[in-house]
Amino acid sequence: MTSLFHTTPAVLVLEDGTRFSGRAYGATGTTLGEVVFTTGMTGYQETLTDPSYAGQIVLQTAPHIGNTGMNDEDPESRRIWVSGYIVRDPSRVVSNWRADESLDDALVADGVVGISGIDTRAVTRHIRSAGSMRGGIFSGDDAALDSEEQRRLVVEAPAMAGQNLSATVSVSAAEVTPATGPRVGNLAVLDLGMKQATVDNLAARGFDVHLLPQHVTIDDVRAIDPVAVFYSNGPGDPAASGEHVELLRAVLDDGLPFFGICFGNQLLGRALGLGTYKLPFGHRGINQPVLDKQTGRVEITAQNHGFAVDAPSLDEPFDSPHGYGKVEVSHIGLNDRVVEGLRALDIPAFSVQYHPEAAAGPHDANYLFDRFRDLVVASREGTAPTTGHDTADSAHGEDN
């Protein structure tokens, strides 16, 4: 583990020219990406290994990071995905019996350039005012580059808007996880940045989880004889994922039940004919309040998204512009009234903008996996053509 008291310089440069000087943390060199902040006070290992963060330099608003180290049990995917990492006070020691290595060493092993010792509150306040923006971390020898050259590199980096990053994070070949609960059937899961906790929750609900590469066709989906389809979370701009939207429309045309989370929520919105837009600074953390309109309960949710669905009404059902019947906004963010969920009323499809699996917590929304299972079972039995209005209340609260 690198000493906290090393003097290797580092600088964070934002595209508007704002600069923050600190110390190198993790690997040294240069990294570029969209600078975003996450408000989670725990679960940094799950954050770092969440593929949704690909292309982003992540700032932790919690000041003290790294005290529990990294272990081999909690990763959400096969590697660390963040483009860079910003922390204020890295822990000087690892103080957890489950740790296999320090966070610093894990960042070095995966080549993640970071910076520590800067005023993360000041960076967060700046982003909240000006919006998420491109940035770069320059450390070691690269910290001495001319300031204008550093800013030029940042400004020339691709913006998040317009990027399709699914191929970067998706599996290259299908993977199957057998059901661990009473079997319901084969579930086709489009891997757009899937987390392991989601796979585990779906398998526990009785699905044989077929994790499919993001480039599959509707014929590939049909070939596994699925009882339903699931779209995962993931990075990038939903407006740049036209092929995934067309695949989803084919799924809906086939009448297959559908559940999407995070990126999957945005793609369902576009499949139904709605637009999407970029949020000023996004929602990232494990303390985001959401109202479930169906139950009237407020849930504390885990989120990581910079784009949202543009719905014509938050209060009343509306017609799908693409002809899929009535649709309603099922969940609303209480901080800024962003669309946090969609429910189709005439076809078996629904989605949420957050992460119901929430490894590291909270677990308020875990019941949504039960709602999906009940929808699939009811659809197979021909008892409920839509999204299971009668079963949701009874399922709410399970596994919390």
Automatic annotation (TrEMBL):
TM helices/strands, residue ranges: none
Family annotation (InterPro entries): Anth_synth/Amidotransfase, CarbamoylP_synth_ssu, CarbamoylP_synth_ssu_N, CarbP_synth_ssu_N_sf, Class_I_gatase-like, CPSase_GATase1, GATASE
Catalysed reactions, semicolon-separated: hydrogencarbonate + L-glutamine + 2 ATP + H2O = carbamoyl phosphate + L-glutamate + 2 ADP + phosphate + 2 H(+); L-glutamine + H2O = L-glutamate + NH4(+)
Keyword vocabulary terms for this entry: Amino-acid biosynthesis, Arginine biosynthesis, ATP-binding, Glutamine amidotransferase, Ligase, Nucleotide-binding, Pyrimidine biosynthesis
Binding-site residues, L-glutamine: 52, 234, 236, 263, 266, 304, 306-307
Spans annotated as Disordered: 381-400
Bias (Basic and acidic residues) ranges: 390-400
Top-level taxon: Bacteria
Pfam families: CPSase_sm_chain, GATase
Region of interest called CPSase, as start-end residue ranges on this chain: 1-182
Enzyme class: ligase
Gene3D superfamilies (alphabetical): 3.40.50.880, Carbamoyl-phosphate synthase small subunit, N-terminal domain
Role summary: Small subunit of the glutamine-dependent carbamoyl phosphate synthetase (CPSase). CPSase catalyzes the formation of carbamoyl phosphate from the ammonia moiety of glutamine, carbonate, and phosphate donated by ATP, constituting the first step of 2 biosynthetic pathways, one leading to arginine and/or urea and the other to pyrimidine nucleotides. The small subunit (glutamine amidotransferase) binds and cleaves glutamine to supply the large subunit with the substrate ammonia.
Record's subunit section: Composed of two chains; the small (or glutamine) chain promotes the hydrolysis of glutamine to ammonia, which is used by the large (or ammonia) chain to synthesize carbamoyl phosphate. Tetramer of heterodimers (alpha,beta)4.
Family affiliation: Belongs to the CarA family.
Database matches in NCBIfam families: CPSaseIIsmall (TIGR01368), PRK12838.1 (NF009475)
HAMAP family xref list: CPSase_S_chain (MF_01209)
Protein name stated in the entry: Carbamoyl phosphate synthase small chain
